């Protein structure tokens, strides 16, 4: 009997980023504004009327003009795959046009060609927290059913344009995050305190239908392509063994499983139908919607940064500083500088839970440590960052990935988040760095934008070269 003892020979090693966090060039070559251009304090922060000088995302790390040099660095590390996103408003500046912006299309043609020239497969997210601002202001984002048609026009355009170049696609980034960040994730302009549960879950339904429709269209246009969903994974542990805490964990995890259940099984689970009924949420769901939802994904991709803990005892609800999506502090775990609790074993739990639930191939498309890095000179006068803390973090997580593969989990690949320093989505800071490559840019917007290899650069290069044998 064959047993898995390590990473598969065809394992897709690489890194990940998002257009809105590193491209910059927010108003170049016909690009329209996105929801990111009016959130200078991050995805949970204040929304402005327009772009402001303190929004670091407007310039990002200028990947738009420097991508060739950056791709060379990715190739030097040995990347097999690079995950990024298409900025919807580069292709359709307002989002509701009928004809696309050719300059935007050409940029991604050039980027994908550059990746392929270095034998790096593009893994492309269609919508990564960058809904065109016009769609948010005019239609209230995904609350409006018209968004399905706008998204369909967009995905048909890019699928036809990049077929043969892009084999791996993701429909929405961390689609379940709309429950926590409706503006950033769903382009919903109604403020959270006024947004009804009915409208929120109607937006969720529209996104799920649009995702399934994109999967259907993608399979028709590109039969050889693989199309996946992307969810934010966060395993939940009970604070105690009290049955009430176990039920609290079950209910918490179902809020996330709901999204992958629909993507993989093509239908609404019974527990959500109960939730809607008990909370008087009546959604507009057509028979055509239900048919479209049957177009299920080829694989499940997810982000993993932390686990969380739940309890039914309100007197014990002490939230962790970094538990941005709820839950309570786990007393057994350390935390990052931003309060995110560090739990390598949780990644093994996630992988096994998804695999046992679906028996569908998995792909880790975000995982990494946001930390304050110190650029310094080595003995040869070269600038670097001695980020042993990042190496230790990633090594510990990848060791648990290896354990999950031994458990029998079918895993396609791993793309470390923010493989080159970029602007944080949650806080819009530069000092919260994830990369193997240091970018000289500061929180006040100063800096040369020069790139420097961190100590973790060579470490990850060796991980890939040994196919994960040497962690």
TrEMBL record:
<protein>
    <submittedName>
        <fullName>6-phospho-beta-glucosidase</fullName>
        <ecNumber>3.2.1.86</ecNumber>
    </submittedName>
</protein>
<feature type="active site" description="Nucleophile">
    <location>
        <position position="366"/>
    </location>
</feature>
<dbReference type="GO" id="GO:0005829">
    <property type="term" value="C:cytosol"/>
</dbReference>
<dbReference type="InterPro" id="IPR001360">
    <property type="entry name" value="Glyco_hydro_1"/>
</dbReference>
<keyword id="KW-0326">Glycosidase</keyword>
<dbReference type="GO" id="GO:0016052">
    <property type="term" value="P:carbohydrate catabolic process"/>
</dbReference>
<dbReference type="GO" id="GO:0008706">
    <property type="term" value="F:6-phospho-beta-glucosidase activity"/>
</dbReference>
<keyword id="KW-0378">Hydrolase</keyword>
<comment type="similarity">
    <text>Belongs to the glycosyl hydrolase 1 family.</text>
</comment>
<dbReference type="InterPro" id="IPR018120">
    <property type="entry name" value="Glyco_hydro_1_AS"/>
</dbReference>
<dbReference type="InterPro" id="IPR033132">
    <property type="entry name" value="GH_1_N_CS"/>
</dbReference>
<dbReference type="InterPro" id="IPR017853">
    <property type="entry name" value="GH"/>
</dbReference>
<dbReference type="Pfam" id="PF00232">
    <property type="entry name" value="Glyco_hydro_1"/>
</dbReference>
């Amino acid at each position: 009997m064959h047993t898995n003892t390590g990473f598969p020979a065809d394992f897709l090693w690489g890194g990940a980023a998002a257009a809105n966090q590193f491209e910059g060039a927010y108003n170049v070559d016909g690009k329209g504004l996105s929801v990111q251009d009016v959130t200078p304090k991050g995805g949970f922060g204040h929304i402005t009327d327009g772009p402001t000088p303190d929004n670091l995302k407007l310039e990002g790390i200028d990947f738009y003009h420097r991508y060739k040099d950056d791709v060379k660095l990715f190739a030097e590390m040995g990347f097999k795959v690079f995950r990024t996103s298409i900025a919807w408003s580069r292709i359709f500046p307002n989002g509701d046009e009928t004809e696309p912006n050719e300059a935007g299309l050409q940029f991604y043609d050039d980027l994908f060609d550059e990746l392929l020239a270095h034998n790096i497969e593009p893994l492309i997210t269609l919508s990564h927290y960058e809904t065109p601002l016009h769609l948010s202001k005019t239609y209230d984002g995904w609350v409006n059913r018209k968004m399905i048609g706008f998204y369909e026009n967009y995905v048909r355009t890019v699928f036809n344009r990049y077929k043969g170049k892009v084999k791996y696609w993701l429909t929405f980034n961390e689609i379940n995050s709309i429950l926590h960040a409706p503006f950033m994730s769903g382009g919903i302009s109604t403020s959270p305190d006024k947004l009804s549960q009915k409208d929120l879950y109607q937006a969720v339904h529209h996104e799920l239908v649009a995702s399934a429709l994109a999967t259907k269209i993608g399979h028709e246009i590109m039969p050889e392509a693989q199309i996946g969903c992307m969810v934010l994974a966060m395993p939940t542990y009970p604070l105690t063994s009290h049955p009430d805490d176990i039920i609290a964990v079950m209910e918490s995890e179902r809020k996330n499983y709901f999204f992958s259940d629909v993507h993989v099984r093509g239908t609404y689970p019974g527990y959500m139908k109960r939730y809607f009924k008990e909370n008087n949420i009546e959604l507009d769901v057509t028979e055509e919607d239900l048919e479209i939802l049957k177009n299920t994904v080829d694989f499940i991709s997810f982000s993993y940064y932390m686990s969380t803990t739940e309890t039914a005892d309100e007197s014990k609800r002490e939230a962790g500083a970094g538990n941005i999506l709820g839950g309570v502090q786990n007393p057994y775990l350390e935390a990052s500088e931003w309060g995110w609790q560090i739990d390598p074993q949780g990644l093994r739990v996630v992988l096994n839970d998804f695999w046992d639930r679906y028996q569908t191939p998995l792909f880790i498309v975000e995982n990494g440590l946001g930390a304050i890095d110190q650029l310094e000179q080595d003995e040869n006068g070269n600038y670097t960052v001695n980020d042993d803390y990042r190496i230790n973090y990633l090594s510990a997580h990848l060791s648990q990935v290896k354990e999950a593969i031994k458990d029998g989990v079918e895993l396609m690949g791993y793309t470390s988040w923010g493989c080159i320093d970029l602007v944080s989505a949650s806080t819009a800071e530069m000092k919260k760095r994830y990369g193997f490559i240091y970018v000289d840019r500061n929180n006040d917007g100063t800096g040369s934008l020069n790139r420097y290899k961190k100590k973790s650069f060579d470490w990850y290069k060796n991980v890939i070269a040994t196919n994960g044998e040497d962690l």
